Amino acid sequence: MRLSALTALLFAAVVTTATAAAPKPLLGITGNVEHFKMLTKQDSVVHQAFLGWGQGQRYGSPFKDLLTMFGPVPMFHLGTAAKPPSKKEAITPAAIAAGGGDSYIVTLNGAIHDFGKLVYVRPMAEMNNPINLYSFERKHDAAHSPAAYKSAFCRIFVLLHGGLAAKVDALLKRFGLKPYGKDLPVNPYPGILRVIWNPLAGIEKGANPASRYYPGDPCVDMIGNDMFSSAIGGGSFEENQALYDAHPKKPYSLPEWGLQGVDDPAFVRRICDFIKSRRRTQMAAYYDSKPGSIYDLGTEPQSKAIYKDCITPLGGPAPG
């Protein structure tokens, strides 16, 4: 056999092996895991919790317990709400950027390190949605400005990933932020920690949704988008594609997607097709599986059937 022919065969073998070894996306849920498994046969790898600022440290179950509770792959959304029943904001994006939330962030850093397995973190997702306390679209002031949000996001990103003090402080300085000054446990990407930047693309227009809030590639591990259908034929697929295309170097995810009181099997089918055809899509989590809620697939038989047949088989196992 000639060398060129042998080389071609070896190259084909390498390409085939790489393609075959591509990891399947992780599927997840917000809400009742067992209820969702009963409906769809899905073994939900990712389980999402929405945390108020300080939850896991100053109130509620400690992070150590929450990480176990929401395994095998926990996904924590970090909001800025104060401890219930208060409906006020515990901290602003500007205060986080200035270091006012470091104690909380560093506590989570240590808990993730001790957990030693993959964790997703979504700091202040849907920042362009005016219903959120941390959104500039809700509070038009400097403490909630896009600039403050981006700085807060970068600070959270750097402290959660950790490292020696010199490295951490050099990164913070690069982003125009005050130093932390201490060594932190390391939570490397992609094996232990993946920090998701996650706007709501459906309320945006143009080729780069929510770009005014984007903190930059060095501060982001993964892009996320939330999508819902509240009427037959719903779903902002054009905007979702625009967000996917705007960040070609980043893996993609759908941390919240679902149906709002409608049986829309075409929407579920299009979500399935998106996950299958956009190979950078690494995670998708249905919102939510609380029995009897407007999002519950148990009351949407056609959509439930499409989910079970099309999406459930796509899911991969929890990373080792």
Write a compact overview of the structure shown.
With about 325 residues, the chain is α/β, with parallel strands linked by helices. It has 10 helices and 8 strands.
Task: Explain what the structure shows.
The chain has helices at 3-20, 33-40, 63-69, 93-97, 102-115, 146-161, 165-174, 237-246, 265-277, 301-311; strands spanning 26-30, 46-51, 73-78, 119-123, 193-197, 222-229, 252-259, 281-287. With 320 residues, it is of the alpha/beta class. Strand 1, helix 2 (33-40) and strand 2 form a beta-alpha-beta unit. It is globular, with a radius of gyration of 20 Å.
Compute the CA-based radius of gyration: 20 Å
Portion of residues within helices: 25-40%
Structural class: alpha/beta
User: What is the count of DSSP helices, taking H or I runs of 4+ residues?
Assistant: 10
Q: Termini distance?
A: 40 Å
Q: Identify low-pLDDT runs.
A: 1-20
Give the secondary structure arrangement, pairings included:
Blueprint: H1 3-20, E1 26-30, H2 33-40, E2 46-51, H3 63-69, E3 73-78, H4 93-97, H5 102-115, E4 119-123, H6 146-161, H7 165-174, E5 193-197, E6 222-229, H8 237-246, E7 252-259, H9 265-277, E8 281-287, H10 301-311
Parallel strand pairs: 1-2, 1-8, 2-3, 3-4, 4-5, 5-6, 6-7, 7-8
Helix pairs in contact: 3-5, 5-6, 9-10
Spell out the key features of this protein.
single chain, 320 residues, alpha/beta, 8-stranded parallel barrel, 10 helices, 8 strands, 35% helix, globular, disordered N terminus
